[in-house]
Amino acid sequence: MIALEKRPQPSRLWSVTTPIVAVVLTMLSGGLMFAALGIDPAAAIRTIFWDPLFNEQFAGFTRPQLLVKAGPLILIAIGLSVGFRAGIWNIGAEGQYIMGAICGAGAGLALYPSDSALIYPVMLVAGALGGWAWAMIPAILKTRFGTNEILVSLMLVYVAENVLAAAASGFLRNPEGRGFPGSRNFRDWPNAYNPELIDGTGMHFGVVAAFVAVIGAYVLMTRHIQGYHIRLAGEAPRAARFAGVSATRMVLFCLGMSGLLAGLAGLFEVTGPAGQLNIDFNSGYGFTAIIVAFLGRLHPVGILLAGLLMALTYIGGELAQLMLGVPGASIQLFQGMLLFFLLGVDMLTNFRIRIGKREVA
Amino acid sequence: MDLGSISPTLLIASIMISATPILLAAIGEMVVEKSGVLNLGVEGMMITGAVVGFAVAVSTGSPGLGFLAAAAAAAMLSLSFGILTQFFLSNQVATGLGLTLVGLGLSALIGKPYEGMKSPTLPKLDLGPLSDLPVLGRMLFSHDLMVYCSLAMVAAVWAFLKYTRAGLILRAVGESHDSAHALGYRVVRIRLLAIFFGGACAGLGGAYLSLVRVPQWTEGMTAGAGWIALAIVVFASWRAGRVLVGAYLFGGVTVLQLNLQAAGANVPVALLSASPYLITILVLVIISARGAHGAPASLGRAFHASN
What we know:
A: 2 strands; B: mainly alpha; 70% helix; globular; cell membrane (chain B)
C-alpha cells in the first residue's frame, strides 16, 4: 500500500529538485512523442536543448535570441508570481501585454515624426499605464462586485485581441503602408526604437527591465512588509485579515503590478524585436509566462532560470522545425507537458511517500 | 444597415445551434464543480474534442463516431487532470490552466493534416409533422440530434442532482469533502467520475463546433468557448436550468453580432466581435454584484484523507 503523508514543513531539497525532475520527465515523454511522429528523439532533444547554445554553426545566431525571448517571459512571469503568491489569479497577462503595446506604440506614433529624446520615455510610461489600466478592470470588478478575476482577465484577452486587430488595420495603421495592416516600423525611427544595447548579446532595454524586476521582486518578497503581507494573504487568508491586511488593496496592488510589467513587456517587444504593431506581433508570451512562473516556483530567481529555459524551448523548437521538420505545435505541447509534470511531482515537496502498511493511529 | 435581412425564425434556429457547444461544456463543468473540483481546462478539452471528432469523422465518414471519439478523447485528457489533482494533490487552478495549454498544443499537432478539409455533418432529424409546423417547426424542430441531446442532458443532470441518491452524494462531496469522507463515501473516486463526465461533455461540445457549427478544422477554433462555459456556470449559480438560459443567451449574443456584421451595422467590427466577451463580463458583474452565491463550499480545495 502506498500512502501519502503530509510533511510538517515543505521539503527544501524537493522544492529545488522537482523542476529538474519535471524537465527530465518532459524530455523523456517528449522523446516518445517525437518518436511517435517519426523523428529521431535523441536528435530532437539535442536540437532543442543543446544546439541553440553550443552548436558552432547556429549558436552565434541563436544565443542572443535566448535573452530576446526570455526578457518578456521573465518580466511578465515576475508580475504574475506576485499575484499567484497571494492567491490572486491573473490569467489575462496576454491582454495586458497587448494593451501595453498598443498604448505605448500609440503614444509614440502620435508624436511622429518628432526626434525628441523624450519620446521613448513617454512610450514607456504609456505602455506601462496601458497594461496597468487593463489589469485594473478585473481588479476593480473583483473588489467592487466580487467577480472572478480569472474569468474577467481572460475574457479581456479576447477583447484586447480585437482592439489589436482594429489598431493594426485601422487607427494605428501606417499611412504610408499602401493599405497593408500594421503600424509604422519603429526600426526606421531611432528615437522610438528599442535597440540591442550590446552587439551580439540580444540584450535590449526589455531584458534590462526583466533583470531589474527580478531583483525588485526578490527585495519585495523577502525584505519588504508588503511582500510579507502578500505571502500571508496567500498562505493564511484569515490570519492576514486579522493582521489588518486589506484584501482590496492586495488585489489592486497585485493585479496592477502584473499588468504594469506585462504592459512594459508588450511595449519593449513591439518597439524592439517585433518592430511594428501588427496583428500577430504577440506570440502568446502572456500564457507561456504562466508556465514560467510555476516552473520558477513563484520565486524571482527561479523565474529567471525558468524564463531562460522556456526561451530555450522556443528557440530550440524553431531550430528543430527548420532542421528536423518537427511540427511547431509539438513545442507548445512540450511546454504544456512541462507544467503538467511539474505540478505532478510537486507533491513530493509537501508530502512523503510511505510504502507499506499504514499504521493504526 | 438593413435589419430587415435578419429573419427572426432563422435567428432563433441559429441561436440554438450556436449555443449547443457551450451548453454541453457548461453542463459537464457544472457537475464537476458540484463535486467540489474547479477544472479550468474546459477550453483544452473542448478543442481536443473538436480535433479528434473532426479527424475521426473525416476518416470514417461517420459524424456519430466522431462525437463518440471526441467524448472519449476529452474524457481521457480530463483524467490526467483528475489524477494530478486528486492523487498528486496539485493546485487545481494551475493544473486546469496546464490542461488547456496541453490541449491547445495537442489539437494543433493532431489537426495540421486536416486543415481545409470538409467533414461529414449531422443530418437534420426528421420529426415528421412537428417539423412541418409553420414557424415553430423551422425554429425548434429542424435541428440535428445533438441539439436535442444537449437539452436532454440538461434535464438529466437536473434530475440526477435533485432526485437521485447518487446526485445527493455528489453534492455532499462538493459541499464538505471531510464530512462526506467521514460518512464513508469515496471522495476521490466520486470526483474522478465527475471530472470524467465533465471531460466527455466538453469533448462533445468541441466536436459539435468542428462537425456542425463550422464544419471544418482551424487551429484555436474554440476561441474562448471553454472559458465562456466556465463563466456560464458562475452565471447559473450552479443550477442546471440556468445553465441552459445562460448558454442560450450567450448563443444569442454571438449570432446577433454576426448578423449585425453581415447587415453592415454602423458599429466597428472589432466591437461587435468583442461583444460576446464584453457581455460575458457584464453578466458576471451583475450576477456577482447581486451576491447570488451558490458555489459548492469545497470548490477548488484539495482533499487529503489524513488531514
